[in-house]
Amino acid sequence: AQSVTQPDARVTVSEGASLQLRCKYSYSATPYLFWYVQYPRQGLQMLLKYYSGDPVVQGVNGFEAEFSKSDSSFHLRKASVHWSDSAVYFCAVISASSGSWQLIFGSGTQLTVMP
Amino acid sequence: EAAVTQSPRSKVAVTGGKVTLSCHQTNNHDYMYWYRQDTGHGLRLIHYSYVADSTEKGDIPDGYKASRPSQENFSLILELASLSQTAVYFCASNYWRAETLYFGSGTRLTVL
Predict the structure, then answer these.
(1) Of the four, A12, A69, A114, B61, which is 20 to 30 A from A18 by CA?
(2) What is the DSSP letter of A69?
(3) Residue in A81, A102, A94 with CA at minimum distance from that of residue A31
(4) Measured between CB atoms, which of A36, A43, A106 is closest to B106?
(5) Measured between CB atoms, does A97 come within 8 Å of chain B?
(6) Residue B61 contacts A, CB cutoff 8 Å
(7) Is residue A35 a contact partner of residue A63, using CB atoms and an 8 Å limit?
(8) Which H or E run includes A92?
(9) pLDDT single digits (tens) B58-101
(10) Is B98 within 8 Å of chain A by CB?
């Protein structure tokens, strides 16, 4: 079965530090991959998506992610975090079989940026 | 900017009571979804719809019904609310299933 694993439930970094949030997927074909962010008391917003092509995709607010087929990963990165980046980050994959599409979310990573 | 509006923002219900959560989108999107979010978990799909007057079951449909009376509106109905249905519910929409989802701000439901 298709799945997405975010191994780190919580990550704490200092403001200005670099960031990597990990995501591993399980999917037999080339997946459609997303990162979504959820700020407190809000719905999810898409940060970036990967369908094909350049494995490094740029998103909003300085975020980027790199697709690795060999590693089955789609890690999210940011060079320098800001306190306002504190939120829950979800990795998600589109699974398609027999004409049925399904978006599968990971369990999320709570990011806390310390001033 | 795509807009998905949910009502109410929060609700307290009694066990065995009926609860209706509403969602309205102004995006002209075909697909609408209801997700459930539990603390420490990702989102799980309850029901979805790709056309008015038709709904489809998601991963966890038991105990929930859905209604899509028009392209803009999608409701989630709990006929007999139970304690286990305490969660945050999100509505979302998109043009087709592999595209970006646009989410509402959620409804926090507490069943006592």
Answers:
(1) A69
(2) T
(3) A94
(4) A43
(5) no
(6) no
(7) yes
(8) strand A87-97
(9) 989 999 999 999 999 999 999 999 999 999 999 999 988 777 89
(10) yes
What DSSP letter does each residue of chain B carry, written as one string? Answer: ---EEEE-SEEEE-TT--EEEEEEE-S--SEEEEEEE-TTS-EEEEEEEEETTEEEE-S--TT-EEE-SSSSEEEEEESS--GGG-EEEEEEEESSTTSPPEE---EEEEE-
Residue whose tokens read 């001033």: A115
By the 8 A CB rule, do B88 and B9 touch?
no
Name beta bridge partners: B91: B34
* Closest residue in B to A47 (Cα–Cα): B100
Asked if B92 lies within 8 A of A43 by C-beta distance, the reply is yes
Is the per-residue pLDDT at A29 higher than 90? no
Query: What is the per-residue pLDDT across B87-96, written as a single tens digit (0 to 9) for each?
Result: 999 999 998 8
Residue A51, both tokens: 């369908």
